[in-house]
From TrEMBL:
Residues 1-26 form the signal peptide. This is Phytase. The keyword Signal applies. PROSITE patterns: BP_PHYTASE, PROKAR_LIPOPROTEIN. Residues 18-354 form the BPP domain. Pfam families: Phytase (PF02333).
Length: 360
């Protein structure tokens, strides 16, 4: 470990010890993975990241993150963790995800979609300019009347490709809602005026009623959506609404997490293999599962590792296996951390711990 990494490690360890004393959390472990990069701070409270891959030069890719508070917003960071653009003044933006090639009058536009929790909307921005293209937002959970039932929280995007092109669907979670229709899925399109709009195409998702559902992740190639039923486990469904099959395919991680099941990140080693990483929030660690499921049973998951990280009380997370150049030749894991920041971890550091079966 070089001198700079030692200084970062010492500072993060001290911060983790202070946080644990004040909140009852487990302290950052002495052997926790040290982030390769820590971003500049937001104004309020970071929550969820997404990774936008540059179309021609992956080393110019950007990280998008939410600042979760009334008056907060969306922040774009470069791979050095510097803020390069931001949109503020939103009504508690919660989670964010990215889709590529939305058709706007024949032009393919990359987009970010975020939940604006207290406005009861999802917001759509073009990338990488971070320009709103939604005329103020798309209303969500319309007709729901219970307290918190329109408060959008989690979001993940499924892109279905076929011979005619691709269709973009946003799967949205909320603060609370009925079991069986907790998640609503919206088809995202753009009109002739260039404004993004959303149409409800599906309502699904078992809910335990224990806490809430926030973290959602889609495995686009395999066609699955995963979500964290906090304090209970991770549930798996088909992502494609056209299947018209809302069968729960798997319910795992029930015994592997200290308290809250939080951010879910998917790292892909091939089109069908890799890892599912789950934030073990109160343990300051990530539990790792095989993306493809157990051998012979794609809907059964055995823990491969539980890796301590320096991120404190991590909510949202995202991963990519693409070579981003420089410090991230095999991609990265991005994790929210207390302290108004996101951590970037060189994937090689995570892979070393998986290979050791750490915390298994």
């Amino acid at each position: 470990m070089n001198k700079n990494n030692k200084l970062i490690s010492a500072a993060l360890l001290a911060l983790g010890l202070m946080a644990s004393c004040s909140s009852g959390l487990a302290p950052v472990a002495k052997d926790a993975v040290v982030p390769t990069v820590v971003t500049e701070q937001t104004e309020f409270d970071t929550d969820d990241p997404a990774i936008w891959i540059h179309p021609t030069d992956p080393s110019q890719s950007l990280i998008l993150g939410t600042d979760k508070e009334v008056g907060g917003g969306l922040y774009l960071y470069n791979l050095a963790g510097k803020i390069v653009k931001k949109v503020t003044g939103l009504e508690r933006p919660n989670n964010v995800d990215i889709a590529y090639s939305l058709d706007i009058n024949g032009k393919k536009v990359d987009i970010a979609i975020a939940t604006e929790r207290k406005a009861h909307k999802i917001r759509v921005y073009s990338l990488p300019d971070l320009t709103p293209i939604d005329n103020g937002g798309i209303s969500i959970f319309e007709g729901e009347t219970g307290e918190g039932e329109r408060d959008g929280m989690g979001i993940s995007i499924y892109t279905k490709k076929d011979s005619l092109g691709s269709s973009i669907y946003a799967i949205v979670g909320r603060k609370t809602g009925p079991s069986g229709s907790y998640l609503w899925q919206y088809k995202i399109t753009a009109g002739a005026d260039g404004i993004a709009k959303g149409e409800v195409v599906r309502k699904f998702g078992t809910y335990s009623g224990k806490k809430e559902i926030e973290a959602i992740a889609v495995d686009n190639e395999l066609g699955y959506v995963y979500y964290s039923d906090e304090t209970v486990g991770v549930r798996k469904y088909y992502a494609d609404p056209e299947k018209k099959d809302d069968t729960e395919l798997a319910f795992f991680a029930q015994q592997d997490v200290k308290s809250d099941h939080e951010g879910i990140a998917i790292y892909k080693t091939t089109d069908s293999t890799g890892y599912i990483l789950l934030s073990n929030q109160q343990n300051n660690s990530f539990v790792v599962y095989p993306r493809e499921g157990n051998i012979g049973n794609a809907n059964s998951y055995t823990k491969l590792a539980d890796i301590p990280v320096s991120a404190i009380e991590c909510d949202g997370a995202e991963a990519t296996s693409l070579n981003l150049g420089g410090k991230f030749p095999k991609g990265m894991l991005v994790a929210m951390s207390n302290g108004k920041v996101f951590h970037y971890y060189d994937w090689n550091l995570i892979q070393e711990r998986i290979d050791k079966g750490e915390g298994k």
